[in-house]
Amino acid sequence: MNEKILANRYRLTEQIGMGGMAIVYRAIDLRTGHNVAVKVLRPEYNEDREFIGRFQREAEAASKMTHHNIVNLLDVGMDGENRYLVMEYVQGKTLKAVIQERGKLSAPLSCQIAIRILSALEHAHRNGIVHRDIKPQNILVHEDGHIKVADFGIARIADSATLTRGDNVMGSVHYFSPEQARGEGATAASDIYSTGVVLYEMLTGRVPFDGDNPVAVAMQHLHAAPVPIQTLAPDVPPAVIRVCMRAMEKNPAMRYQSARDMASDLRAALEERGEQIPYPENELEIRQPKPQVAGERNTNTGPRRPVRPRNRNKTIRIALNIVIALAVIAGLFFGGKAIYEQTIFTVKVPDVMGMNIEEAVRVLKQAGLTETHKAMPSDDVELNQVYVQNPGADTTIRKGDAVILVISSGPVPFEMPDVTNMTADEATNLLTAKKMTITRDRAASADVQKGRVMSQVPAAGDMVTRDDPVTLTISGGSTVIPSLIGHTLQEAEEMLITQNLAIHSTLKYEMTENAKEHGLVAATAPEAENRVAEDTPVQLTIYRYPEAECTATLSVTLPESDQQLKVRISTRAEGSSVAYTRNYTVEAGDSRLIEETIDIPDDRLYTYTVYIGDTQYEQKPLNPKDNGD
Predict the structure, then answer these.
(1) Which of 133, 191, 265, 379 is the catalytic position?
(2) What is the CATH number of domain 549-626?
(3) CA 171, CA 354: separation in Å to the nearest integer?
(4) What is the pLDDT of residue 320?
């Protein structure tokens, strides 16, 4: 980052974290004066569509969730080429740092932390979000003991190739599930496995599997059993161990099927069938003494007070009833007032995901809400369409509050690759993989090998998107149009083939009054001596002397069909490789008969061949007749 103020709003004060693809800063929101955490995509990934997609998925995932155990998304945007997310700032440290400082944590504390992680995951899973990278480094411990789960959607281990993508992801291999180790997709059960690993580490002070390299660790997730918890931490209750081991089952079907179920069993393990285990002192959270409930028996044993007279007891009961009645009335009043204010002054956020920004603004305005939106590129979302909203749909907020929207500014820009000197197929395959539309031209070149790219538009290094059309000019080699005027058609064909040139599929004719010119070449296009690409088709114009004209009647009866037929009829001189073609489109209701009088250019014997589509239908000799017959 070259500037200390991002987007004219966030003053970056210090770097507080660095992951495999993003850098995290503590910053001051200049509008509110609050501390925030700003996560900025590493500059080297600004043009990497995979990492941009991951970064955008984190914003989308965070926008769907509002939970007290999840780090909340506050803003998202771009400043120049820098993509950033603004999250709430958690003053404290990671759970990993806590474990490194303390070693083993007590069983009650470990369970309480795990329950909060599971509460966050239950909320995420209900919203269709799988974290995929639960680990102590992604669990933030506030200085007052609150637990926050961070980094939803940013770190996804999809295959073995990611095992070596930076230290951060290499660390994740200690926590991911067997199915992730096999390169399969992560599910909610994968998050539960990772939570089990985190719980194991809290209870024992060490990860269940370790090795010299990530692959060795991954193989242990697949096949090895961890060192028993009771061996490393004998004081952990068996009920807690059973919960941890079930969460770490190799087979996803054998694990807890929901975060709620695992949390429920942890609570039961803590209480040991109704007997509450006291919370440890001087742990992460400061708990207030439990207030005594009105009417609860006081177990204090001391001298009894003298019994009061019955009349006084009656007076006390009457007074107590009056107090209770007044409390009920007050409760009804203030409760009703609260319900009224809740109804009048709050609203549920409507779902505007997928809407055009204009429609989304209208819907939010009708609901009594304001909005602020930012545009970010996306390859998967149409221009000006909403693909992130925060707070998410159905969240209850006060009327007049703002909803943050992220809309698509179109496809993700990237740097145009250099495809010059590639073969035409190599360049086409590369650009097609980027979903670009390609037009190929051919040009003569004595310097660039035939079939390779001579030039490209846009130029290499230009910023483009997949919607930008690309024109590639392909070298056709180089040859020269020979002088053909005055030669017979047969001689012209042979000379053009010798020069690596093609003959145009149709002939032109020019009338002449000189009988000796009949059948000779009158003109070429391009003209003689022009340098052109090899295989360039050359249009030939042939002289015709009226009295020497020769034609033939071509008659073809096509088969019946209820579909459109593409018909091609080619004529070829005996012994020649050059065919002259005519193309016809015959609709289902058209006549099946094609009948036409065609010119025979010279005195060679000609055959015509009929093709329907690419299939040969019939072949017959052309029977010439003199002009005037």
Answers:
(1) 133
(2) 2.60.40.1930
(3) 36
(4) 67
